[in-house]
């Protein structure tokens, strides 16, 4: 592992020079925190598929072992039950930091993983969020926008936790010459998403499959931009492997109101699904859409899967998980 670290991290850090991809060791040892979760498990699939050795650290707070069952027994795969709030000693070349306990422990977990990256000279990628823009006064959101977050609101624990995580990441970059990357992820959906965690796409899909009304909060005119998980995973890997720190918006610019989303879910699953309006939560951002010009130009990345193409892929997975393997189409 040492030669990999030298080629991938320490030398580049110490000289400040940029080592071309071709000269880096091709297979690395990579830590994915939160790798048993929705995004993390898809990322692990891709990294293992590329021949890397992957260590997943997860406390199974929202993640599930089943998301990684396909890798059990693979000598290049290791799963450790651990809370990143506790210090951790490992030797790795890269760290994808996805574990995200509810803030403020989010901050402590990020600090520990930065400390680990510093000790071993690993490159560190933070999965931040579009929530750092809060209820944005700029539309679409560009990375240079500083955001509009209510520091004492009901959502601020998550938002401010990620903003602090970004700050820490940049401080380690500046003070310890750590190689870092920051992704600001916009709403992402796909197979293995938590069925009952209350996010809008998982709610609507599960509701339509269960023949329950789709719950639209507020007037349903607020917008979000929905990205399919495989596009995100490609973006995360391009960001990690590229030469730019970021932050980079990683999201699909296709913008939908919640009523439009409900309509796409109806078209995909059940045209007769009813809609039920519910009170919205406080401080709900009115609109959100990424400007991805920077990622396009510097990472050569852009999403390719539209909502209408990605949603059915998620629906088959939800169908199987809700009704079991042999439940037909669940109607
Ligand atoms: P997820 O909940 O499925 O995955 C998070 C994983 O981290 C889970 O497996 C969980 O068990 C694990 N975890 C939580 N606290 C931990 C701790 N203290 N120690 C170790 N493991 C811990 O969520 P996801 O959607 O896959 O999100 C992954 C990352 O991407 C998160 O950092 C999240 O903030 C970020 N993100 C996701 C979205 C999205 O739309 N899915 C949008 C913006 C940002
Ligand atoms: N840390 C860790 N694993 C390591 C190195 C550090 O979990 O391999 C933790 C460490 O316990 C500390 C945090 O990361 O809480 C920050 O470490 P750093 O060395 O940057 O700060 P210091 O310990 O000097 O305050
Ligand atoms: N939402 C909704 N019905 C639901 C769940 C969420 O209308 O059952 C709305 C919510 O008010 C918000 C949007 O969908 O405006 C996205 O919510 P989500 O929690 O998925 O993501 P975030 O708000 O973090 O972007």
Layout of SSEs?
Layout: H1 2-15, E1 29-33, H2 38-49, E2 53-58, E3 77-81, E4 94-97, H3 105-120, E5 123-129, H4 156-176, E6 180-185, E7 188-189, H5 200-209, E8 214-217, E9 223-225, E10 227-228, H6 229-241, E11 248-250, E12 255-257, H7 258-268, E13 275-278, H8 293-299, H9 307-323
Parallel strand pairs: 1-2, 1-4, 2-3, 4-5, 5-6, 6-11, 7-10, 8-13
Antiparallel strand pairs: 9-12
The structure holds nicotinamide-adenine-dinucleotide (NAD) and uridine-5'-diphosphate (2 copies).
Structure description:
- The chain has 331 residues and is an alpha/beta fold.
- It is 37% helix and 16% strand.
- The chain contains nine helices and 13 strands.
- It has helices at residues 2-15, 38-49, 105-120, 156-176, 200-209, 229-241, 258-268, 293-299, 307-323; strands spanning 29-33, 53-58, 77-81, 94-97, 123-129, 180-185, 188-189, 214-217, 223-225, 227-228, 248-250, 255-257, 275-278.
- It has a seven-stranded parallel sheet with strand order 3-2-1-4-5-6-11, sandwiched between helices.
- The relative contact order is 0.13.
- One uridine-5'-diphosphate is lined by residues 187, 199-200, 203, 215-217, 222, 224, 258, 280, 284.
